[in-house]
Structure formats: C-alpha cells, structure tokens
Amino acid sequence: MSDFKYGDETISSREIMIALPAVTIGVGILSLPREIALLTVGADGWIALLVAGIMITVITWMTSKLAASYPGETFLSYSSKLVTKPVSILFSLILVMQSLLLSAYVIRVIAEIAKAYLFDRTPLEVISLTFLLVVVYAVSGSRAGLFRLNMLFFPIIVLITFILSLFSFGWFEMDNLFPIFETGVRDQIKATEISGLAFVGFNILFFYITLVKDTKKVPKASVHGMLMVIGLYLLIFFVNLGVFGNAVTGNLVYPLIELAKEIEIPGGFFERFDSFFFVIWIMAIFNTTAMSVDVSIYALQPFTKLKKQTLLFCMAPLIYIIGMVPEGSIEVAKLGTFIGYFGIISSSGITLILFTISKIRRGRKKEHAAK
Amino acid sequence: MGRNFFRRRKLKQESAEGEDFSTEIGVDLEKNLQDLQTMIGSPEDLVIHRLNLGFNVKAAVAFISGLSNKEAIHNDLIKNLLRNREKEAGSDTPDELIKQLKLDLISIGSVEQTNSLDKLTIDLLSGKSVVYVEGTAEALLMGTEKWETRSIDEPISESLIRGPREGFVENLQTNMMLIRRHIRDPNLRFDTSEVGRRSKKKLVVCYVDGIVNPDMVKEVDRRLSSIDMDSAMESGYIEQWIEDSYLSPFPQMDNTERPDKVASAVLQGKVSILLDGSPFALIAPITIANAFKSPEDYYDRWLIGTFLRVIRYIGAFITMFLPALYIALVSYHQGMIPSQLAFSIAATREGVPFPAFVEALIMGLTMELLREAGARLPRTIGQTIGIVGGLVIGEAAVSAGIVSPIMVIVVALTAVASFTIPLYSVAISFRLLRFGFMFAAAVLGLYGIVLVYIMINIHIVNLKSMGVPYSTPFAPSFIKDWKDLVLRGPIPMMNERPRNLKPKDTTSGNLRR
Amino acid sequence: MQLNKKVLVFLISSTIFLAGCWDRVDIEERGFIVGTAIDLVNQEKENEYEVMMTNQFVIPSGIGTLMQGGGGQAFMNVSEKGTSVFRTNRKFSRINSQEPFYQHLKVLVVSEEVLIQPHLFSNMMDFFIRDHALRRSIRLLVAHEDAKEILNSTPENTDVPAMYLDDLMENVDRNTNTIKPIHIGEIQELILNQQSYVLPVVRKVGSMAEYGNVVVMDGESNQMVGSLNEDETSGLGFINGHTEGGVLEVQVDESPLAVEITKINQKMKITNTQKNNVEVEISILIDGNIAEYFGVESVLDEKFLEKAEASTEKKVKELTAKTIKKVQQELNTDVLGVSKNLYQFHYDFWQEVKEDWENGENYFSSADIKINSEVKIDRVGSADRIKMKEE
C-alpha cells in the first residue's frame, strides 16, 4: 500500500507487451502480403514471414534482456558503460533518426492511403498535418498515457482483424493456397528480408524499459508481444492469399484493405467495408506514430535539456517536412524500404553489439569472481 | 463623513471575517448580550430571554427562532432553569453554577461549554441556543437545532424501476442517517469539516475505514482544505473546486441522490462527500466506466444487468457518432451507404437547400432547445413541449423541405440514445462532444471522426479523478475488474473490490480464496 | 503560459478545419451510375480503338422513397465516345449537371465486338479494377449485339435496368445452363493468372433480359474465341463448379423427370503427367431431389430411384462430354480448370508444359479427360405419383 498515486512515468511489463505489437503493426502489414506474394509461389510466403518473425523475436528478446539487466538506467548510461560514451551517443542518435524517419514515413503513407480510399481532392498535406497534430497532442500528454492508448486501441485492431478474417471465410478458397513448397530458396530468403522490414519498431525497448517497474518480466513480455505480431501477420497473410490467390495479392497495392473491400458483411450498414476498415486501422497507425515520436523525444531529451513540449514543437515540423519530401508513391515506397532496412539493420546491429559485449563482460566478471 | 463610512465598512468586514474579532465572553451579562447583538446585527429572529436564577443571579437564553426547537427550549431548558432556582446554593460561584447547570439541570442531549464568542455566534446561527450566566465568562451551547425540512422523497433525477425509493434531502443529519442505515459497520466514518468563509456549512467526508485506501482520504482532505470561497450553495461548488481538470468536458466526480449508491461506493473503497443543504452527494474517484453503471444493474439479475449495460454503451456510441456518421456518409462517403438506401436518401434530400452538416446542426440545436425548454418549464408543461415540439417541428421541417426525413430519424435516435446514459453529467458531455464530431465529419468525413475519437481517447487517458486514471480499468488494465465493466458478472462471482482503487481490503464477502 | 500555448496550438490547428471541405459533395449532387455498357465504335489504328461508353444514371426522385412513390423515369442513359475509359468518363461531367459517381456501379455490360479484339477487354477492365473507390463486386455481362441496348431492358416491375440485371443474376442457382455471375474482382484474378475463362452472356428478349450461356475467352490475349451453347454451358458448370444447382431434365422409361440439383461437388485429379498423355479424372457428385415427374412409376421405389439416378448420371456425362469435345477440339482453350489444377498440384510439370498447353504443342487438346458422375437422389417430394399405372 506504499503507492496510491499511479507513478505517472512508470509502466508495467504488460504494457510493454501491448506496446510492442501496437508500434510494430501499422502501415507495413497493409502492403506486406503483396511484397511477399510477388516473390513466392502459392502461399509459401508464410515460411519467410515466420522465419523473419522468429529472428526479430530473438533480437527483441536480446534487446529487452540487455535493457532489463540495467534496471533504472537510461540507454545512454548503460550503453556508455559497454561501449564508450561517444559511441553510445552515436547509437542513440541513430535510433532517434530511425524513429523520426519512421514517423515521417507513416504520416505520409496514411495520407496516401486516405487519398486512395477516402478522399479525392483533399490535399495530402492537410491529411498528414491533421494526423500529425493529433499525434503531437498525444505526445504532449503524459508518457504513461501513451501506453494506455496502446492498451485501448490495440484490442480494437485485433478485433477488426478477426472480424475481417471471419467474414472472409465465405470467400476463402483452400485451392488458392496451392502449390505448396515450390518457392526457391533464394526467393524465400529475399522474402524473409522483405518480411523483416514489417517488424520495425522494437527499438522503443532500448529506451522505455528504463521506466518499467517489474524489469524481470520484460524479456518474456516482449517475446509475447512479438509473437502476437507474428500471429496476426500470419493470419492476415493466409486470409489474403486464401481469398485472392497469389497472383491477385501480388498485384494489389494494399491487399489487406482490398480484402475488406472484397468481402460483404451480410446485412451490414456499411457497404464499403474497406473505408471503414481503414478508418479503424488509423488507430493502429496512430499508435505507431505516437510511440515513435515519443521515443525520439525521450531519447533526445538528455542532449538538449529542453522541456518535452518544447522539444516536441521543434521536432514536429521536422517530421512533417521529411514526410512531405518524397514525390509520388514510388518515392514514398522507396523511403519505406529504406527505413525498413535502416531500422532493422541499425536496431539489430546495436542490439547484437551491446548484447555480446555485455555477455563477455559478465562472463569475465564471473571468471574474476571464480578466481 | 466619508472617512467614517469607510472605517465602519472596514470594521464590519473584519468582524465578519472573524479573525481579529475573537473576543472572549466577559463576565458582564448585559455586555455579552450587547456583543452578541452587535456581532450578528440584532436581527428580528434573535430571541433573548432574560431570567433570574434566584439569589439575584441573572441569566439569559438566546436562540434564533427559525432554526431552533422552541418546544425543547421551553420545556427542557427554561422550565428547568426556573423550576429549580430554589435549589440553587447561594454559595456557588457563577463558574460552578454554570457547571452545575450543565450537569444537573438541563435535559437536552448535547450541551457544550465555551468562552469564545466566535464559536458561540456560529453555533447560534446553526440553530443552537445559548445560556449566559451573570458573572461567568463561560456560556452554554445547547443542541436545539430544528428547522423545517423536506421529507424523504423518491430521488427525482435518478429514478429506478427496482431499488430503494429514498433519496437524500437537504438535511445533512438525515443524509448521514440514510447512509448509516445501509452500512452498520463501526468503521464507517463521517469526517466533518466546515466550508465557506461566510456560510460555514458543514461538509462530511464519508468512507469506510479499513476498506478505503488511506492515501485517497488524505488526498480528498488536502483538496478540501484548499477550498476558499464564500459559500458552497450546492455540492457542485465543491466538485468544481476539487476536481482534477477544469478544462475537461468529463465530470471527474459522480453525484447522486441515492443513499444506496453512496453506500455501495464507499463499500467499494471510494470516498463520498456530503454537503449540508445539498441533496446531491459526491462520489470520487470515478472512471469513464462509471458513466455506464447504474445501481439497477446490480438489483436485477446479472444477465439483464449486462444487457442493459451493453445497451448503454451502444447508446453512448449512437449519441456521439450517429449524426457525425450521417454527415460523413452523406457528404463524403456515399459509396459506403447501401445502394438502395443511398438512392432513397438522395431522393429525400433533393430540394433540401443546406449541406448535411447545416441540416444536422439545425436539427441538433432544435433538439437541445426543446430539451432545455422542457427542463425549465413545470414538469407537466415540459413533457408537452417535448412531444409537441418534437413532432410538430420535425414534421413541419420535413414538409417545408428544410431537413430530410432521414435526418429527423437520426436526430430522434440520437436524442433517445442520450437518455440511456445514467450519469446525467456525462450524458451532457457526450451531447456536447457530438457537435465536435459533427464538425469534424463536415470537414474531413470519416477521417475527421476517427481523429476526433483518437483525441478524446488521448484526453481520457491523461485525465484523472482524485489521482486515479480516468481510463482505468480498461487501461491501465485491471483484468480482475473487468467482470464489472461492460459485463456485470453474477453477484457471487463479484467477491472482490475493484483493484483500480487499490483498496486496503480487496475481498468483499466471505468467499475468500 | 501553459494555457496560452495550448490555446495557440488549438487556434493554429483549427485554421486547417476552416480551409477544409475539398471533397464535400452532398449526396443529391452525385450522379449515381449503376450500370455501364461498353461498345466498340471503330478501330482507329492497330491497338487503338474508339469505344462508346454508356452510363446509366439513377434519378433518385424517380425511384421514390418509402413514403412517396416515385414519379417519372428512374434512370437516364448517357453515351460518350472516346479512346480510353478514363477520358471518356471525364467527358460525362461536361454534359451532366451531376458528378458521375461510380461507387454504386453494379453491372458492366460489354459487347461481343469489344471482346473479339485482342487485349482490348483487359485494357478496358483496368480502369474498373484500378480505381480504389470501385467495388470488386461489379458484375460483368456480355452482350451479343449492342451492349447499351441491354441497359434499356425494363420489365414492368422494375425501375432501373441495371438493378434489374443485378437481381436477375441472384437467381442463377435455379438454372443449370447458366453460370454463377462473375464479378470484377474475379476478372482481375483470371486476367492475371492467364488462364482461359468464360463470361456470361445476356440477351435482350422484348423488354426483358435473359441471362444465358457463356462466351469463351482466351487467357493470354483476353480475346473471345467462341461461345458455348446452353447445353455446353451446363456441362461446363458441372465440371468446374460454375453452377450451384438447378434443374436437370432426364428421361426415365420414356417419361420426363425433372431432378432438382441441390448440391454439386467436383473433384479433379490428374492421374498421368506425361506431356502428350495427360490424363484427367473428374468426378462429379450430385445431390438432388425429384421436382417433377410425368410417369406412373412409384418414385418411392428403390429400383425407380436407381434408374433415375442412372439416367441423371448419363445425362451429366452426355452434357459434359459435349463441352469437353467443344473446348478441346474446336476452341482449344482450357476453361475446365485443368491448368489451374496442374499449377496447384503439379507445379513442376506445369512449368514444363506452360508454354505449350493451349498453343504450340497443344497438350490440352490431347489430354484425356474422363468424367465420373455419381448422382444421389435424397428426397422425392411430398407425393408419390399423381396418376396410377394403367394396368
């Protein structure tokens, strides 16, 4: 009964478990089935998806294990213990960059999709800006509040995905999943690579684990979180392939939204379920953006000594401008791929480096102790 | 002259504030009476009864006629004083005499001795009667409060089909009695304090010691002690002073006229605040889920309770979203309306000169006007206004081509849905937010609606009520609390108090695991 | 200070809302298009055609609401010529006060002339598939003559021809010699898979429209290569599941018997994968009821039912044999779904024969396709027979 007031800036491992899928699931999965289907035959892509997912889960586990072994310490403080201070600053900035780019990319993509499915003439800039303003409003509130938002929205996302899958059942054809195991190894590897890009987002763990009360439970929680992502992705992938078949999935820009368009909900008040689905999905995209903006602000704070709000008002225009730079959807897609690679390589790289060093150090310490 | 006037005003103010004017009672009876009269300005209802206690010991009884029980004063006080004057021992000093009076003579339940004029005045003004005795600087205060009150009625603002029919009244003592009758636990606490610089009203913080989290009571006390105002006319004043965020559209405290609701809240580990003169008790903390809970949920069987709750959640969604959805679908996303319905809406809207937003705004405002008019008028006329206004204006507006018939359905459904929310103050905020949604829908269609929905969620997760997050137990989630959230579990299953309140004692009932 | 900032941010963000409403078009200003017909006008150059697009606009006041019946005509057909669908489409806004709105498009009618040209059909379809706002459930029909004439068929009890056509296609399960309606989403799948496919034909009969047999499209050039008659269509339906049910008329001891088919299941199995000797076994399982019987035998008799089942099986075999003969010998296009089966279950072999399946070596024509049919009659109706045997 020590603490009645909810410690505002501390979070529980359960919230990390939800935050991870909430950040990861966003715009990536909307187009992922197409990218996988283009490279693979039949529904073989699930192998790639699963392999990529498991690899990322392992890295996520390492990240959280690493961060959890320094409870209460910020990324900067524990990483400068492992590598030197300048290197840790560099790492920190890379991770901030990644989050900033991701949020810029997401606010752009949301405008692109909204323009395709909801609007005709409304300018991209306005769609992005309104979205960004809502994100800024969210981030300017309390950090614990953001985690609560994840908790509120994530179940809705899962629910709408299940509803979609359920109603797709009438359009699902087993035959569409065939032939099986016909994809070449090289294509599978390429598909695995592409799938990995949709798992960007676990870099929040570097920073947020500091705030967690029950650090010991975090590695397990984050693995659970990642498994949720994998499960949801696999479900979406299979339903997409089963309904459309490989060829069509490979030729739809956003197969997941088109899936919502294909199905008709019996007796539904809404005829075009795709618009509705996308509108709900905006909440998932919102979670991704809000968390990435917040993590970058949080990581930048030690360098600038500015107030959170001030920093936020400085970063928001930057994010907006980066988001508006690419011209046309091809450049946006290129930016997306770049961010995917950059994100996965940098966060996995940093994790691997730090994790190995910390293991070696610990090993030495033990040896010393033994001696 | 002008200067004199100014001085007098200043003096008066000082005396009223009572800070420098804590004059003690003197030994001179006449002086004391004069002081008293100056202090409260010798009003007409101040009754001063001079009497002789024998052996030329003078005494006086003073009371305010409308606030005191005259019968008790005459029978139990004055009669006793006069009847027993022969017995008084002449050797007694006035100080001993007054003690003797208190112990031996006066047959009134509560008797207090004081030497502070300040306290004496305030008690006098709250209905007690005073006995002065010549030669002593002490006075006796008798608990003879009695005034006209309303009898216990059925709570008007929260009527239930099944449940107790008693409601709070304006009398604090009666209200406390009503709560005590529900909870006979000796740990039930009523912490009394005074509120209002000038009104000095009594305010009671009610909780069950051993259930409630002590920090919560401390927090409530801290906030209450910060109150600085002339008077609190209604518990709403208190609510608005101590709430967490005055910018929020959502109420952060529940108010109720129902003793059973207060009793069940304090048993869950909440704190209730009662104010003298107000039939509305405050309950804190609350969360967004409380907006959908009604005591009746628990009085009916769980299946019915759950059903009613689900209906209320649907009602809340309709209240907030339906007009906005109509605008978004009709002005932006016509492809989402089933074809036949789309054609039929298009046909009915032909000739309507306004865009859907204006149409919805007109009807929405009309509805609010009707509701407000109905609330202001006497109840019998109010109902008529509702029916006549609704029917006639709706019908006329349709045939005049100002709005389409579908719009009338939408508005009517919205109005009906908003009545399902048991917490009136939340229902009002929902109705208000509805206009925000409508505006967003008019500008950005469904996209606007979802952005506003996200914004409201952001607001809710950042809002607190007495330090408890408003969005709990959804998030931060307390899964054990979910059996009394959207669903209402069977009573035997609900053997634990809500965890989100962090109560001292989590288990209710005997089903300890 | 904090408050001022908040107010400032709020004011700045609210200016966006003031500038909003780019897309706001109220519902009554939309010109709802429910049907579109595409006809060929002439061929300008190689691969460049002038097409005529006819859009059927709904006049909502003509349909009326529940409260008041409609008056006047409920639809309006507007035609425009052009070389691409998109450009032609833009022309409509010049002549119609309302903005053309395709999101409620139900039926697309394409004339045979368009289908005969190579690649033209797939090019036309691109517009309807690409636009995110269009539904994937738009149904496609083929007209033998002018497609726009089809959009004029209005039987007494309907207001809008396109809606009538849409409803018409809901009833296909009552008939074996029609196929399930095909929607745009499927067309995309068919075009992408480069498999040959069939499209349903609609014919104008008086003021009514009749939904009937199919035309056969080549998968590569998306060009019409021929058509199947009604019997052949129902044969095709049995083979690849285009048909969901319907009535089959057979002869039992020279008395006509109508079997109502309630369920059809087919299973294709490729038993031999040698290039020149592909063997395909298709087993068709049919459940049915007796709907009508003119004879005098007792339908409750087990022997009679066996006879009935046998003759139904025979009938199915006859029908399917005709179809197979036609598509293998005459049209030389695999609309039976053999290639799909090969792709799905014999992927490696399919990669080998892919190029020479319908063209070149023409392995499809030489494939040996066997049909096994099995009919089960479950229920016989409420009466045994309505007349007794004449002794």
Could you explain how this protein is built, in words?
The complex is a heterotrimer of chains A (371), B (513) and C (391). Chain A has helices spanning 13-24, 28-39, 45-68, 75-82, 85-117, 124-140, 143-168, 185-197, 204-208, 218-249, 255-262, 273-304, 308-324, 328-370. With 371 residues, chain A is mainly α. Chain A has a single domain (13-353), classed as Amino acid/polyamine transporter I. The longest helix of chain A is centred in the last third of the chain and has 43 residues, at 328-370. The radius of gyration of chain A is 21 Å and the shape is globular. Chain B folds into three domains: 2-142, no CATH class; 172-286, no CATH class; 299-469, no CATH class. Chain B is built from 16 helices and twelve strands. In chain B, the strands form three sheets. In chain B, strands 1-2-4-5-3 form a five-stranded antiparallel sheet, with helices on both faces. Chain B has a five-stranded antiparallel sheet with strand order 6-7-9-10-8, sandwiched between helices. In chain B, a hairpin with a 5-residue loop joins strand 9 (271-275) and strand 10 (281-284). In chain B, helix 11 (302-331) crosses helix 16 and helix 13 (356-376) crosses helix 15. Mean pLDDT of chain B is 84; it is low at 1-22. In chain C, the strands form two sheets. In chain C, strands 1, 2, 3, 4, 5, 6, 7, 8, 9 and 10 form a ten-stranded mixed sheet that branches. Chain C has a four-stranded mixed sheet with strand order 11-12-13-14, sandwiched between helices. In chain C, a hairpin with a 6-residue loop joins strand 12 (255-272) and strand 13 (279-293). With 391 residues, chain C is α/β, with parallel strands linked by helices. Classes of the chains: A mainly alpha (371), B alpha+beta (513), C alpha/beta (391). The A-B interface holds A 1, 4-6, 12, 14-15, 114, 118-119, 122, 127, 130-131, 134, 137-138, 141-142, 144-153, 268-272, 275-276, 279-280, 282-283, 286 and B 213-216, 219, 332-333, 335-339, 444-451, 454-455, 457-458, 461-462, 467-469, 471, 474-477, 502, 504. Chain C: It is found in: Membrane. Chain C: This is Ger(X)C family spore germination protein. Chain C: It is a lipid-anchor. Chain C: Residues 23-203 form the Spore germination protein N-terminal domain.
